[in-house]
Design a protein that fits this description.
The complex is a heterodimer of chains A (101) and B (412).
Chain A: E1 16-19, E2 24-27, E3 34-38, E4 41-44, H1 47-54, H2 62-73, H3 77-93, E5 97-100
Antiparallel strand pairs in A: 1-5, 2-3, 3-4
Chain B: H1 4-8, H2 19-25, E1 36-40, H3 69-82, E2 86-90, H4 100-108, E3 113-118, H5 125-134, E4 138-143, H6 148-155, H7 160-173, E5 178-184, H8 192-201, E6 206-211, H9 216-220, H10 222-225, H11 229-245, E7 251-255, E8 275-278, E9 284-285, H12 306-312, H13 314-318, H14 335-338, H15 343-350, H16 366-380, H17 384-387
Parallel strand pairs in B: 1-2, 1-8, 2-3, 3-4, 4-5, 5-6, 6-7
Antiparallel strand pairs in B: 8-9
Helix pairs in contact in B: 3-4, 4-5
The chains are: A alpha+beta (101), B alpha/beta (412).
């Protein structure tokens, strides 16, 4: 259990998570909430999840993302780290997010 | 093409993450909202798969012309307003419609997720480029087996497999996400390891291993196509190992064979609750095989808006919720989870679509399903050709009814 996405700790902060092209962020027209669409599926997102995924462009490292979220939500990167990492790992397991070197 | 495929998607194995999980946990709850629209653009198809879920009787002289481009565009807009998120372009073979890129563009430009469900026959580099430019999100290609002779025999179409391989490469090369769909039956279930390897080799991001649903043409061929219990058990072991091994690389979906289950599949997550199908002529169905049920009147988008049909059509009201349920469903704690199973299957096996699906072990008509399985088990000991209904060169070894095409193509 050492590769990212299988829950390795500490999180590999130098890797760059990227939302795969098969998944697309949209705003749901009925609820006006952010959603993630992918083949045959949809996830209703909360504001934090949407904020995380908007930063998963394959350019920002996990450390960059944690810093940005910490700024936005007035928390420290360390406080956010486990939740964000766990969330991105679960999306990786569903083949929706890749971790780039 | 094998329409059977899509119809099976909404029947996941327990525990897999499916759209419904997300939907029910989030804003939707128990409200009625179609999030998927299956757009059957045409019933014409170059393949003749014996498990196709297109109607078994398409009488050309009774048929209306196919919906026009502008009719489909209107309907796509109405679908988005109604809350549809996924548009599945299907058929028949949707590539036979020249206006497919225009329809993809219409759907994509209003935010719908567009998926092409195709046999891949007709999917050339140029067409793929057009579709990509129109904003197509994802391509699903059906495969019948892992090697050409058997695959072409099952599809009833020489040369099909080679074309699919080339098309899958093109899809990858142009950067579109690829799903491979295989409908599993006795003629290919023992090829599972090779099928999984094929999907990996082709770079699929998603592999759907979908046990045949015995509706449509598949119901005519059930004794020829049903796997044995031993085959099903072995398949499950292989699929589980593949799911574990490929986690994070390729999504492996397994649709379990409900004939061998104790509880029925949550067919479409409930009648008229999450899905719509529109036929080539504009009839709106709660599910793609619903026309098999007698005495249901289906409304047409040529006469009504999609919203009116979703909210008011008698065919949608008929099996919504749980008011129509007989016992043992009516008092069953699982009635909001499996919705009593599949209405079409209940009709085909019991003669009454309002009965509990005999795929449930609590169904008073369970014996009819068990009798079919017992026929399969008995005959499976009788000859090797029963065990493998297609020879390695693709020839059918036992009587199999291949799907036929509509005789003419109105609207062309």
């Amino acid at each position: 259990m050492s590769t990212p996405g299988e829950g390795s700790f500490p999180p590999p902060k130098v890797l760059r998570p990227r939302l795969l092209p098969r998944a697309r962020l949209e705003i749901d027209r009925l609820s006006q909430r952010p959603i993630l669409l992918y083949p045959e599926g949809v996830m209703m997102l909360n504001e934090t999840a949407a904020a995380i995924l908007q930063l998963c462009n394959g350019e920002y490292t996990l450390a960059d993302i944690l810093r940005e979220l910490a700024n936005r939500y007035e928390a420290s990167p360390e406080q956010l780290q486990d939740d964000v990492y766990e969330y991105l790992c679960s999306l990786r397991d569903q083949n929706l997010v890749a971790w780039l070197e | 093409m094998t329409l059977n495929e899509q119809q099976m998607k909404p029947s996941p194995s327990p525990g897999t993450h499916q759209p419904e999980d997300a939907l029910s946990q989030a804003a939707l709850g128990n409200t009625l909202r179609p999030f998927g629209l299956l757009a059957e653009l045409t019933y014409r198809c170059p393949l003749r798969c014996p498990y196709c879920s297109n109607p078994t009787q398409i009488l050309s002289d009774q048929r209306q012309p196919e919906l026009t481009t502008s009719e489909w565009q209107r309907v796509i807009g109405e679908a988005a307003t109604l809350g549809v998120l996924h548009l599945l372009f299907s058929g028949g073979e949707p590539l036979l419609r020249r206006d497919l890129p225009v329809l993809v563009d219409s759907a994509r430009s209003i935010g719908l997720y567009t998926n092409l469900i195709t046999s891949a026959l007709g999917l050339t580099r140029r067409r793929l480029q057009e579709l990509r430019e129109a904003g197509l999100d994802s391509v699903q290609i059906s495969f019948q087996a892992d090697e050409a002779a058997l695959a072409d025999g099952i599809a009833g179409c020489p040369g099909a497999h080679e074309h699919k391989l080339e098309a899958a490469r093109l899809v990858n090369a142009c950067g579109l996400p690829l799903t491979i769909n295989v409908v599993l039956h006795r003629g290919n279930i023992e090829r599972l390891p090779a099928l999984i390897t094929l999907a990996e080799r082709l770079g699929a991001q998603r592999l759907e291993l979908a046990s045949t649903q015995y509706l449509g043409w598949a119901f005519c061929n059930k004794v020829a196509l049903l796997p044995t219990k031993a085959q099903v058990q072995q398949a499950e072991t292989i699929v589980r190992a593949a799911q574990e091994r490929l986690r994070g690389r390729m999504e492996v979906i397994y649709v379990w064979p409900d004939y061998y289950a104790e509880r029925p599949k949550p067919c479409l997550y409930g009648w008229g609750r999450r899905y719509l199908t529109i036929t080539p002529e504009g009839e709106v169905l709660p599910c793609q095989t619903a026309r098999v049920i007698p005495n249901l009147h289906f409304d047409n988008v040529r006469q009504h808006s999609l919203a009116w049909i979703w909210q008011r059509s008698a065919a949608f009201e008929r099996f919504r919720g749980s008011h129509w349920m007989p016992e043992p469903c009516r008092s069953c704690p699982l009635r909001e989870q499996d919705f009593g199973g599949c209405r079409c299957q209940a009709f085909l096996l019991t003669g009454d679509a309002a009965n509990t699906d005999p795929a449930c072990s609590l169904s008073p008509h369970r014996a009819r399903l068990l009798a079919i399985l017992s026929e399969v088990e008995q005959q499976s000991g009788s000859s090797p050709s029963f065990h493998r209904p297609f020879a390695p060169d693709g020839r059918p070894l036992i009587p199999i009814l291949f799907r036929t095409n509509p005789k003419s193509c109105p609207g062309e």
